[in-house]
Design brief:
This protein is mainly β. The chain has one domain: Metal Binding Protein, Guanine Nucleotide Exchange Factor, Chain A (Beta Complex), CATH 2.170.150. Helix content is 5%, strand content 36%. It contains one helix and eleven strands, in the order E-E-E-H-E-E-E-E-E-E-E-E. Strand 7 and strand 8 form a beta hairpin. The radius of gyration is 15 Å and the shape is globular.
């Protein structure tokens, strides 16, 4: 795959350029991600902050995760699409949890692991051989 890859929110006000391969791609089945994705799970690409460049204004919203960590969501103020998440109290890792559904080609990143399968909808099948975790690893 060639980088950079372009991505944008639904209305196009926020766009980005991903310059390097994600560190990992996961599918999260927690009920919060089901609400976020309006789907059985949400796909997230863990990317280094220095491998992505954003254009446009983002707004933020945060909630507490079950772990006690803050989960801050950055989203487009116009269309409301979430673009990425991060923990504002742990910037030492220098990573973002990018929502790769905004990429020009959404088929590029297949999940390498499924988390929060303890909240997975019963009719969702996870491919054989893919790592699974009952909660957050």
């Amino acid at each position: 795959m060639e980088y950079p890859i372009q991505g944008a929110c639904q209305c196009g006000q926020v766009s980005y350029q991903l310059k390097a391969e994600p560190k990992m791609v996961i599918a999260c089945h927690c009920t919060e991600c089901q609400k976020l994705a309006t789907s059985p799970y949400s796909v997230t690409a863990i990317v280094a902050t220095d491998s992505i460049e954003f254009t446009g204004e983002l707004k933020e919203w945060q909630r507490m995760a079950e772990s006690g960590n803050k989960n801050c969501a950055a989203f487009c103020p116009e269309c409301g699409n979430r673009v990425y998440h991060y923990n504002p109290d742990d910037m030492s890792t220098l990573k973002l949890k990018l929502k790769p559904v905004h990429l020009e080609d959404t088929s590029l990143f297949e999940p390498q692991a499924h988390v929060w399968v303890s909240e997975k909808l019963s009719w969702v099948d996870i491919p054989e051989g893919v790592k699974t975790f009952p909660k957050q690893p």
